[in-house]
Amino acid sequence: MTAPSISPAEISEFPLTGPEPIRRPFVAPRTKIERAKTVLGELSQAIDSFLAEHPPNVRVEIQEPRGARPKVFFHVEAKGAPEMIGAIMGDVIHNLRSALDLVACELARAAGHSDKGVYFPFCDRPEALEKTIKDRRFDRAGPEAVALLRELKPYPSGNAALRAIHDLDIKDKHQMLLPTFTAFASPILSRWDDDGTLNLTVVGDPDLATDVRLVLPDGPLGGDEILPALHSLADLASGVVEAFCALTSK
What is the crossing angle of helices 83-110 and 226-247, to 10°? Predict the structure, then answer.
């Protein structure tokens, strides 16, 4: 006896449905923060691999070493950072920014309101904050959340680091965040010869690379070393999320 056949049309009439996802309060923003920290580990490995494969060369040039005002120039020869490093940086920032929007939506639902159109508000100046709170519907999060937001001062002149998360996320949507090189340490210079003659020279190998690192491009936190800066932003975003989560447990 053969099994009855079923046509493709009949199969389409039996959609496969799984269990509804478990929605635990404030797990989503915390998960985004953890994801950002995981991606930071990937970013660290990518930077280490790039620098190991393409180490930058720093050449020191001194003009008029015996003059009253000698000039020192640092010539950095380095391969541009690959786009993948910029893409990973963008992933870190986007997860942090998403965590802030998710916590805003969680607060609105916890207060019994719709989360439609709710975002974590950022503005350019202090006097614009109240309007931005309403425009981003963050007032649905409740008066305690709004009061905490005012304390956080999410604008450049208030909390520049917090605002940087928003600005870097916006920038990454329009232009990839490509890091640049900078030298954090200068070589040791000797100003005098052994006989006391004025002569500015580099102690050791003048072509020995100084402490060269990858830094964020021009813009928010521009010039800051990438990994410490992004770790700091991750810790900041985590603290903000936890501060808002704590409001619902009172």
Answer: 10
CA dist 112 and 127 (Å) reads: 28
| End-to-end CA separation in angstroms for the chain | 67
Dist. CA 226–CA 223, nearest whole Å? 8
Q: For residues 162 and 154, what is the distance between their CA atoms, to the nearest angstrom?
A: 6
What is the pLDDT, as a whole number, of residue 195?
Answer: 73
CA distance linking residue 55 with residue 52, whole number of Å: 6
How many Å apart are CA 159 and CA 164, to the nearest integer? 9
Please state the domain extents for the chain.
25-247
- pTM, full prediction: 0.78
Q: Is-contact 48 70, C-beta < 8 A?
A: no
| Alpha-carbon distances, residue 244 vs 28, 68, 117, 135 (angstroms) | 13, 59, 19, 20
pLDDT at residue 16 in the model: 56
Let me know: does 158 contact 173? Beta carbons within 8 Å: no
Distance CA 201, CA 191 (A): 6
